[in-house]
Amino acid sequence: MLKEENQSKFDELLTRIQECLLEQLQNEIQECSKEKLSRIGNHLVLANSLASQALMTRVAILKDLALTLVTEFEAIEALIGSQSLDFKGGINIQEELIRYESALIKSALEITGGNQRRAAALLGLRASTLVYRIKRCQIKLKSETQTAPTDPHQHSLSRSLQTLK
C-alpha cells in the first residue's frame, strides 16, 4: 500500500513538474513571439518604406523617359513631315528607310552626347549593329568631322611614324 501511495505521489509530482515546465515554456514562447513580432513589424515598415521609395524612383525615371521619347518622336515627325513624299514621280523605299533610320540614329547620338553604346541601348540595338548602321547610312560622327591637327610638328611626327612602319 505504501508503495502505491508513493507511486501516486510520484506521478502527481511528475504531472505538476510537467505542468510548470509547460507553463514556463508557453510564457517564454509568448514573450519571444511578442519581441519577434515587434522586430518583424519594424522590418516590414522599413521594407515598405524602401519599396515605396524605389517605386517612386522608377516612376520618375519612366516619366523622364516618356517625355524624352515624346520629344524625340515629335522632332522626327517634324523632320519627316517637313519633307513631303512625291508619289507621282515614285519613291525609293530603301532611300526613305535609310533617311528615317539616319534621323533616328542622329537623334540618339545627339541625346547621348555621341556615346555610341548608350545610343545603341536607347535604340534597342547592340553597339556593333549601331556602328554598322552608322556606316551604312554614311553618318558623319563629330570625331570624324574634326579637322586634322594644325601643329606642323604633329604632322611630321605622324609621317615619321608611318614611314617606320
**Morphology call:** rod-shaped
Helix content: over 70%
The arrangement of helices and strands along the chain is HHHHHH
Count of extended strands:
0
Q: Which terms summarize this structure?
A:
single chain, 165 residues, mainly alpha, 6 helices, 82% helix, 0% strand, rod-shaped
Question: How would you summarize what this structure contains?
Answer:
Helices cover 82% and strands 0% of the residues. By secondary structure, the chain is mainly α. Helix 1 (2-82) packs across helix 2 (93-111).
Structural commentary:
With 165 residues, this protein is mainly α. 82% of the residues lie in helices and 0% in strands. The radius of gyration is 39 Å and the shape is rod-shaped.
Write the topology of this structure.
Blueprint: H1 2-82, H2 93-111, H3 116-123, H4 127-136, H5 142-145, H6 152-164
Helix pairs in contact: 1-2, 2-3, 2-4, 3-4
